[in-house]
Design a protein that fits this description.
Order of helices and strands: EEEEEEEEEEEEEEEEEHEEEEEEHE
Distance between the termini: 27 Å
Number of domains: 1
Strand order of the largest sheet: 1-24-23-22
CATH architecture: 6 Propeller
Number of helices: 2
Oligomer: single chain
């Protein structure tokens, strides 16, 4: 394992997710201060408040920002006048909180969801990916996914890669000309967890718990291996090419960015427990330098 220096970019938050490098700035959300933030040379500035808890971020071709509103299962749109409006209501297409999202260069957004009441202790259930088009219309384009969380689109716009947080695998889909998705296939599979409903058992059996996703110019992905307290660079097929140990902190999302695309940003926190994270300001954004630059979207 290569030794790297980790520096703190921003701290004093509750639980960070959705890091994005956009327009020369680092953007991210903080769940329990309900904010979308950006960092531009100085400290982190709160850009907009999302009362029902923000998650995935992206931008339409005209520059307006989209952000997932988790607990009411909506995609919101930040207008040029600063108003936050409903872009799409996807309540009936999700099995739980709406979650991470990738927005393609053409404005199509692919949104994952929990699938069940994770924080309430419900049993695991597989769930969907929802396509939200630029006009706000939506449809389910994939099903049977174990908590889709972290997605990227390849530079040619023809493939979507998505983590399955509680599935012990990373999946991929061809993006059809009409923007729907072809059949699921493995990007990397570390073992079938079957229909096990107990989340604790799934975690014990899993070799990876992939959260957040970033694609690099060699076709490998970086992901946050959550409670395993590391960030992992993995090739298609499952070979681990690199890893960054972050113990005692867990890592819950990653992004590649910076001027040369070689800065890996890491969302760090002690755990993902909603009660504990709401009550404390122990989350921070870390950064380090890696060897291969960013590619694709986001």
């Amino acid at each position: 394992m290569k030794k790297r220096v980790l520096k703190t970019v921003a701290d004093g938050f509750t639980y960070l997710e959705g890091p994005r490098w956009h327009d020369g700035k680092l953007w991210f959300v903080d769940f329990y201060t309900h904010g979308v933030y950006c960092v531009d040379g100085g400290g982190a500035e709160k850009v907009v408040h999302v009362e029902k808890q923000p998650s995935g971020l992206g931008w339409l071709p005209d520059g307006r920002m989209l952000v997932v509103s988790m607990k009411d299962r909506k995609v919101m749109r930040l207008e040029r006048d600063g108003n936050l409006v409903v872009h799409a209501d996807i309540w009936d297409k999700c099995g739980g909180h709406a979650n991470d999202m990738v927005v393609a260069p053409n404005g199509n957004a692919y949104v994952g969801n929990f699938g069940y009441d994770l924080m309430g202790g419900a049993g695991h259930e597989n769930t969907t990916l929802v396509l939200v088009r630029p006009d706000g219309s939506s449809q389910i384009v994939a099903d049977g996914l174990a908590f889709p969380n972290g997605s990227v689109i390849t530079p040619d716009g023809k493939r979507l890669i998505v983590n399955e947080l509680f599935g012990n695998r990373i999946s991929q889909f061809d993006i059809r000309p009409d923007s729907t998705l072809g059949p699921r296939r493995d990007f990397a599979n570390c073992g079938d967890l079957g229909n096990e409903a107990n989340v604790g058992v799934r975690l014990e059996r899993a070799k990876i718990i992939p959260d957040g996703l970033a694609l690099d110019a060699e076709g490998a992905v970086w992901f946050a291996d959550t409670i395993n307290r590391r960030a992992v660079r993995m090739a298609e097929g499952g070979e681990i090419l690199d890893e960054i140990d972050t113990a005692p902190e867990g890592i819950f999302a990653v992004a590649l960015g910076g001027v040369d695309g070689k800065t890996l940003f890491l969302c760090a926190a002690p755990d993902w427990d909603e009660g504990a994270r709401t009550a404390a300001r122990e989350a921070r954004m870390l950064a380090t330098t890696v060897d291969v630059a960013h590619a694709g979207t986001p």
